[in-house]
Amino acid sequence: MPSSTVPEYAFAAPFTHPPVSPIRRLVPYASRPGTISMAGGYPAQELFDVAGLNAAAANVGARLADCLQYSNIEGQASLRHALAALSARRGISCDPDTELAVTGGSQQALALLARVMLQPGDVAFVESPGFPNSAQTMRHTGATVLTVPSGPEGVDVEALARMAEIHKPKLVSVVATFSNPCGATLTREKRLRLLALAVEHRFLLVEDDPYGELRFTGEAVPPILALATGEARNWAAYISSMSKTMAPGLRIGWMVAPPEVRRRCTGAKAADDMACSAWIQEIVAQYLGDGAYDRHVPRIREAYGSRCAALGDALREHMGGEIAFLQPQGGMFCWGRLTGAVDSTRLLPYAIEHEIVYVPGNAFYGDPAQADTQAMRLSFATMNEAQIAEGIVRLRRALRACEANEPVSIALAA
Amino acid sequence: MPSSTVPEYAFAAPFTHPPVSPIRRLVPYASRPGTISMAGGYPAQELFDVAGLNAAAANVGARLADCLQYSNIEGQASLRHALAALSARRGISCDPDTELAVTGGSQQALALLARVMLQPGDVAFVESPGFPNSAQTMRHTGATVLTVPSGPEGVDVEALARMAEIHKPKLVSVVATFSNPCGATLTREKRLRLLALAVEHRFLLVEDDPYGELRFTGEAVPPILALATGEARNWAAYISSMSKTMAPGLRIGWMVAPPEVRRRCTGAKAADDMACSAWIQEIVAQYLGDGAYDRHVPRIREAYGSRCAALGDALREHMGGEIAFLQPQGGMFCWGRLTGAVDSTRLLPYAIEHEIVYVPGNAFYGDPAQADTQAMRLSFATMNEAQIAEGIVRLRRALRACEANEPVSIALAA
After folding, report:
1. Are residues A341 and A287 in the same domain?
2. Given B11, B142, B261, which is nearest A264 (Cβ)?
3. B147 and B227 co-located in one domain
4. Domain containing A383 — which CATH number?
5. For residue A376, which of A10, A344, B186, B357 is within the disulfide window of CB 3.0 to 4.6 Å?
6. What CDD domains would the database entry show (chains A, B) (predicted)?
7. DSSP character at residue A215
8. Same domain, yes or no, for A237 and A176?
């Protein structure tokens, strides 16, 4: 055991005072028996295709001896080709040998792109509100990470344009389809404008697309990279993940990036973790090759769509105008705003006491001063329709209790 | 496809001119049919415990639904506890909840430790010759990486002491047992001296121990962390891997580090790749829990020991004094030195033409000026005893052809 006095380590600046995740702080409450959690940022466990994955694994098990060595750093050829075919079905053509790389989720894809582009003194942009880990991986490079206002209609592209003039970012990361936390989707016009800005200011525009295949209603908009032609193609990267469609426990994602960028990401990955597991990669390639993925995604799309509809219905029926929201067209999240005097942080302990948990909006802002304190992220992914309806009934009760200043036993750290 | 002119990306400094790996350059030659490769830094495929791994996987498959979500960032509890027990058998006691974390091979453990400790302006030390990826992951932080002379008796601890006075490193990485490429093992006295230096100069001493369990002969020396008491425990970390004992394709390693360091590594991993695959972690935990690991390691130890003995015999029999070497007591590598006029780089194309491949020593030096140009790394892991003997016969023929200046058709890039 280490001695009891903590030595004064000289950590690298981004790690001197590690932030406490306000989302992770909620986990003990969200996992209480009887509690309905709309806090999770993960898919529904009961929708995993366990049989299909076991079938793919059995196939790989029969040739396991060939799947136990180091993988190519950029990924097994079988999986790269399968992911290139999947990307092509989303409108993105790419060369699996020079533009595509397998990564440990899309999180690692973003981390690698950040690492090869950014160093102290550089500037990167992220959306705010946005997924905290996206900003965090950029901050870890020592770069300055600035936030561009975003919301239920996606990132404010004209604000981004003004900020780019001033700050000259080297990397800009957006979730263009069914964003986390807002569930927002950027129009085609805004996507084209982002590409033009990337070319003009020579920043790498990274679209993180974990949710794009989970569209329930409305018309699909192509990924940004699918709209990139000529010079724009040199400044756009696409990253995606199997975490929301297959399972997070695979830790398989990928990037499509310009060859010179991808080549450096391969060098970064070699020094980071050598490669992704060849075993798991072969299972995912087998699952894609079996057609299991193409059969599975419509099933979860239907299930999540039904849950999303149930959430909208419940909010309209039980909360009246007390929570404003846009009905999401896909993804896993709904961004609601309390319209009364109570803000989402004040409401939270009451909600927990009433056995319904959400993530307050301020968890998704890098700068607390920018935070929309009325907002909350409601995930509709992991609860069924009846639980969702019951959860919103509980939320109304919690709001009433909060408005009445009733005593509450839950004490959350600030 | 990107347009044909390469845009001028402003990459982060460590990625502006990515190095070409001299080892990877050899792969096409090493994998030619008929060629005997002693170049690989990986274990023997035919020694993988495919049946045991499939049995563990089948067990996990029966409870797969519970292994598909995001893992804890620091690793599944089952695996952390199993790895703490394994570490304890190596002499290292630790708390699996505050000191141990599962990582993507020991490579990721080193990368995470480097990232939380190092930034531009800082100094880190690595051994030279040493595993190139160890130095590379530190360079990627922007820190200055200095090399401490090493060799068949391990890192020069007194040289390290003198350098530490001058350069004040924040992190020092060593392979203390059966090093790559030298096969060297540090004495207990030198390990204790390293710990004293770590306390004196307040650097984090990281021992990378992928090979320690592969001891064929001689007396075991405890891992450095097992010798750390009191304040020294605050400045020592231990990292290890399943890549050499189970299989590289699992991508499972671990760290034991002081809690404040480990906590920050968890934050770094969250932003890097969220976690290792829960599925694979559960398979490894099951394999360890089954006792399969404890049955398997003696088998591969015996096999590698026999191959190591065969290499020593062949070198003595066929090369006489023309290659000097110390008989390794474990691991996968033998460090040989050509004693004549021919150096290992000049010999290499002849060797390839004679269908025997090794890695020339200069591949393991960060600074070419320091390189021992006579040296070569011979892996005895992946070839059987007959192939090893034949390989050394071919090497002698190649040396004769080289000495005679015979024409050679292989042209290797510098």
Report:
1. no
2. B11
3. yes
4. 3.90.1150.10
5. A344
6. AAT_like (cd00609)
7. B
8. yes
Question: Which residues from chain A sit within 8 angstroms of residue B84, using beta carbons?
Answer: none
**Residue B261, both tokens:** 């360091």
The answer to whether the CB atoms of B273 and A108 lie below 8 A apart is yes
Residue of A nearest to B382 (CA): A69
Reported as a single tens digit per residue, the pLDDT across A96-115 is 999 999 999 999 999 999 99
Window 264-303 of A, Cβ < 8 Å to B: 264, 267-268, 270-280
In a domain, residue A280? The reply is: yes
Q: Give all strands (DSSP E) within A209-345, no chain letters.
A: 236-241, 253-256, 323-325, 333-338
Q: Is A27 on the interface with B (CB under 8 A)?
A: no
Nearest to A68 among B64, B119, B249 (CB): B249
Q: Is the pLDDT of residue B383 over 50?
A: yes
CA distances from B223 to A185, B229, B237 (A): 53, 13, 10
* Same domain, yes or no: A100 and A223: yes
Instruction: Return phi, psi of residue B256, to 5°.
Output: -120, 120
- Pair (B274, B317) in one structural domain: no
Beta bridge partners of B246: none
Contacts of A13 in chain B (CB under 8 A): 119
CA–chain centroid gap for B129, Å, is 12
Nearest chain B residue to A18 by CA distance is B264
Whether residue B264 and residue A6 make contact (CB cut-off 8 A), yes or no, is no
For A248, which of B42, B70, B251 is closest by C-beta distance? Answer: B70
Nearest to A11 among B53, B116, B276 (CB): B116
Domain membership of residue B314 as a residue range:
22-48+295-404
If asked whether residues B288 and B303 sit together in one domain, one would say: no
Which helix (H) or strand (E) is B173 found in, with range?
Answer: strand B171-174
Of the candidates B92, B304, B265, B87, which has an alpha carbon nearest to the alpha carbon of residue B191?
B92
Bridging pattern class, strands A171-174 and A204-208: parallel
Mutating which of A256, A261, A272, A282 best tests the B interface, going by the most B Cβ atoms within 10 A? A272
Q: Where residue A260 sits, what CATH number does that domain have?
A: 3.40.640.10
Contacts of A1 in chain B (CB under 8 A): 93, 95, 233
Give bridge partners of residue A325 from the DSSP assignment. Answer: A336
Residue A318 domain flag: yes
What are the chain A neighbours of B204 within 8 Å (beta carbons)?
Answer: 9
Nearest CA-CA distance, residue A342 and chain B, Å? 33
The total domain count for chain A is: 2
Give yes or no: residues A81 and A137 share one domain.
yes
| Residue B97 forms part of a structural domain | yes
Going by DSSP bridges, is the β-strand pair A323-325/A333-338 parallel, antiparallel, or unpaired?
antiparallel
Contact A7 B263 (CB under 8 A): no
A 60-119: CB under 8 A from B: 61, 64-71, 93, 95, 99, 103-105, 107-108, 111, 115-119
Give the span between the Cα atoms of A28 and A25, in whole angstroms.
7
Question: Is the Cα dihedral A60, A66, A69, A70 positive or negative?
Answer: negative
Task: Give me the phi and psi of A280, to 5 degrees please.
Answer: -65, -40
Question: What is the separation, in whole angstroms, between the first and last Cα of chain B?
Answer: 31
pLDDT at residue B5 above 70? no
Indicate the residue of B50, B64, B69 with minimum beta-carbon distance to A64: B50
Last residue of a domain, one of B237, B258, B292: B292
Taking the model in full, what pTM does it have?
0.97
Q: Is B103 helix (H, G, I), strand (E, B) or coil?
A: strand
Contact list, B108 vs chain A (CB under 8 Å): 272-273
> Nearest-CA distance from A167 to chain B in Å?
15
Provide ipTM, 2 decimals: 0.96
User: What confidence tens digit (pLDDT) does each residue in A250-307 have?
Assistant: 999 999 999 999 999 999 999 999 999 999 999 999 999 999 999 999 999 999 999 9
Average pLDDT over residues A217-242: 97
Which residues make Cβ contacts (< 8 Å) with residue B18, sequence separation at least 6?
A263, A264, A267
